[in-house]
Structures are given as C-alpha cells and as structure tokens.
Amino acid sequence: MPCWVNGVPAEGVPVRDRGLAYGDGLFETISVRQGRARLLDRHLQRLQLGCQRLQIPLGIDSLRAEISSFAMQVGDGVAKLIVTRGSGMRGYAFPQPQQALRILQGSPLPDYPAAHAEQGVKLFSCATRLAEQPLLAGIKHLNRLEQVLARAEWQDPGYAEGLMQDHSGRVIEGVSSNLFMVDAGQLLTPALQRCGVAGVMRAEIIEQSERLGITCAVRDIGLAELMEADEVFLCNSLFGIWPVRELAGRVWERGELTRILQNNLHDLLGG
Amino acid sequence: MPCWVNGVPAEGVPVRDRGLAYGDGLFETISVRQGRARLLDRHLQRLQLGCQRLQIPLGIDSLRAEISSFAMQVGDGVAKLIVTRGSGMRGYAFPQPQQALRILQGSPLPDYPAAHAEQGVKLFSCATRLAEQPLLAGIKHLNRLEQVLARAEWQDPGYAEGLMQDHSGRVIEGVSSNLFMVDAGQLLTPALQRCGVAGVMRAEIIEQSERLGITCAVRDIGLAELMEADEVFLCNSLFGIWPVRELAGRVWERGELTRILQNNLHDLLGG
C-alpha cells in the first residue's frame, strides 16, 4: 500500500515535526472504494474546521486533488491522512513561517466480521473518562492518549468497541466511533461541545435521517437514558453502522430504525 | 548539534510511529552543561512514572547510558528526549509486541536575557484553560495542544511566559514552567493531580527548600490568592528560577526567598 509525505512516496518524517513533538496536528481516516475517497467533502470540512481552531494554514483544494490521486493507488482500502504544523525548533511557539506537513498512509480494508453489522456488537464500558476541553472538542486532532488508554482497558476480542463518558458521566462516544440511540422513534446523539470527535459518518447519518423524515436530537445523554433506549448503534467512516447488542448486561436486538439507516448507507459506501 | 534515533544518528522517524499518530509517548527537556545531563535522575524518575501510566515498556538503565553519551556530544546545550510507543498499524490498540522508540535531539542553550533572572519577567494571562484529566496529570506526555494554543495567544516579546489556569480557575503553571508563590514566609506551589506537568525543577526546589528549613505546601491555589502573594516565581529545567515581576497589572519586586533559592540552584546548574 502506498505512503506519501507531502505528495511523494516516503516512509519517514523529520524528527523535529510538531505532530510528533506535541501532537500538533489533525487526522482523517478515509474509506476508499474502487479508487474513490468516500465522504471526502465531509472529511475535508472537518479538517478545515480543525485547521482553523489550531491555526494551521493549509491549502484544501490541492490537498483534495492529492487525496484523490492517492485513493486511485489505494483502490480498495483505507487512506489515513495526517496534517501537522510541520517542523519547528524547541518550544511551543508556532514556527515562522509555518509549513504544514501532509502524510497519506494506505492500508487494506479492515476485516470486520459480517456479524457485527447484522447481529450487533458487545460494547465495553471504559473507565477512562474524557476530559472537557471545548477548544479541542469535535475536531480530530492528534492528542489521542485518552483513546489509547481506553482501548488498552480490554483485550477480550468479544468486545468490538468501548463506550466513553466524560468526567460528569455523560455518554459521549465509542473509542473510535460515534454513538446514536433511538427513543420512542426519535434519533438521539450526544452533543460534542466539551469533548469527543464529531465523526463524518455521524454528520452523514444526521443528514440522512432528516431526509428520511426522522428527527435527530443532538444533546447531552446520561448513561441511565442510554440503558433505557429502544435501539443503540455505533458508526464510523470505515464500518458504517454497527448495532449495539450488549452493554453492561443490557441486551438489545437490531432495531428497525438502525436497519433502515444501515440500508440507506449501503449504497453510499459499498458501491 | 547531534540527533539520534534509537541510539544512532538519524534525522527521521517512521511514518507509522504512534508518537506522531496519537501523541502516544513522553518527553524530557534536559539541560546539558560541560557534557553532563543535569538533574538526570529526576528526569528519568518522571519518565518512568510516565511509562508506567501509559504502559510503555522501557529499559531505563540503558537509556541513562545513552543520554550520558549524548550529553558528551552536546557539551553545553539542551538534550530533548522523546520516547514513543513505537510503530503500529492503524487503530488505538497497543502494537504487539511493543518496541518503544527513543529520540534524542540536541540544541544550543537558549539565549535568555540576564534581566529575566534578576529583574523578573512579565507573565501573560492565558485564556486557554487546562482540562482536568487525572490519568495524564503530572507526567510529561506528548499531548500538548493546550500548551500550543496557550503560547499562540501572545506575540509581544515583553511577555516571557504565560499563566495557565484550569477550568475551575485554579492557578496551575506556566506554559512551559512551574509556578511557586511565597505567602508570609511560606512557599506554595499548585497541586497537579488534575492537570499540569510536575517539573523536575519544581521537585528540586521543593526538596531544596526543605533542606533550607522552608516549608513548601503543595495545594490548590486560586488566582486571588496568587495576586496577594509576597513573591511569585517560575521555574524549569533550562532557566532555573525567574521571579515574576508583573501579572495583570500587579507588580512584584524580586523577593528574598526567591533570591535565596536562585543562589542555591546556581551551583547545581551552572557548574
């Protein structure tokens, strides 16, 4: 699988890159099918929001062309994009001038069991809580130690994902996915103003549900409310939608609304 | 100045290193004088604590020898050490087996104005607040976007450092230093259980003050209490101690206790 740094094949990055020094950058995990980067507009939109928040200057149009060329080489797989603030000397102050670094890494499509999408997955309750930092909430930055620690909490492959809450006990997301629930026909997903990553698939599902005439509320959700939900599902840009089958002893069947949204996504992602 | 990756001269790191992907690692900024790494035991102690918290396996004894050899090449300057969890495939789960990566970067001694230590420095009040994450508090991990954003708040070189508070308004630290205050002859420094980096110079000063018969309390400190302090100073492993001359209109002179601690450190660091 190809790997590019600043648009050319390479396997290394400069030792003084600030992505390495401080996690000073952003990333996107992009599904590539038949040589095309899926949901690319949404990925670039979120990246642009991240660049604004972190004040990283980046030419989005040339990056779009670069990702499209890269996706052709990947064919079917995953294109992981990392954008950093580039190299600098010691110290937190921005380098002058700033020269963002772009990395594109190809990898094969993950080999998810088909049962995950059909029968649903078991969700681990992570003890690692997400800190509340509004300045970094929503964007997909490179400071991911909370996710690393949360993912290290379980080794049992019976758990396909882990549930993360914030320090106040609000339900926020999966370690590498977003979360939705259905309550009395209404779709709900946690607000992400304080912490969490606003996934591109989450945005896609919110928009699709509106088109289907299903209202989707974005607000704070407590654990008790989640446990009483009629349906619960996870989503991300690689696996689409997985129903949640079990969490802390509570068992769900794949629900009707989950199935409708899965079918709806199928055409978008598979083709 | 030399740069080593895993003990040999190199200028790049593998593109799949988890330090770059997730900030999944730790660092130390070590003062080197006359070919010797200063406060090395304290740096290695903190690094070891960080490795335990992040579950990164690392041989400290061989690393100590490596840093000492590196310091000989640096002579007088700074040795920045980065330890990451090493390379892995996509995804937050630890790679199996884990193979930590070690980077040593040399750089010249920073050219601090002598007046900073003698007349003191002006402190900028950062609006960026530190999130509370007990799992990561105290250690010097690579997730440093809060410091990057805080440092970007001022360009005026009249400010030598910035003051950071947590979301509850407690005073925590400087952007790249720790903070002490003196109140009625007693030394105080903020508790760092929720956020902040427990600096090696902070630990050194706490221990030295005890030896001098000065009690040092480590506890929560509010901004109002700081503003009423008799003396305020900053410290880190490179500049030692800088008195704070001004913060938000409040002006201090260099205090007696600050001067005593500065003199005490001088022998340790300069020689």
Automatic annotation (TrEMBL), chains A, B:
It catalyses: 4-amino-4-deoxychorismate = 4-aminobenzoate + pyruvate + H(+). It is an enzyme of class 4 (lyase). Its EC number is 4.1.3.38. Pathway: Cofactor biosynthesis; tetrahydrofolate biosynthesis; 4-aminobenzoate from chorismate: step 2/2. It holds the Pfam family Aminotran_4. One of its GO terms (biological process) is folic acid biosynthetic process. One of its GO terms (molecular function) is pyridoxal phosphate binding. The keyword ATP-binding does not apply. The keyword Lyase applies. It comes from the Bacteria. InterPro entries: Aminodeoxychorismate_lyase_IV, Aminotrans_IV, Aminotransferase-like, BCAT-like_C, BCAT-like_N, Class-IV_PLP-Dep_Aminotrnsfr. One of its GO terms (cellular component) is cytosol. Keywords: Folate biosynthesis, Lyase, Pyridoxal phosphate. Its cofactor is pyridoxal 5'-phosphate. Belongs to the class-IV pyridoxal-phosphate-dependent aminotransferase family. Homodimer. Involved in the biosynthesis of p-aminobenzoate (PABA), a precursor of tetrahydrofolate. Converts 4-amino-4-deoxychorismate into 4-aminobenzoate (PABA) and pyruvate. This is Aminodeoxychorismate lyase. It comes from Pseudomonas pohangensis. The lineage of its organism: Bacteria, Pseudomonadati, Pseudomonadota, Gammaproteobacteria, Pseudomonadales.
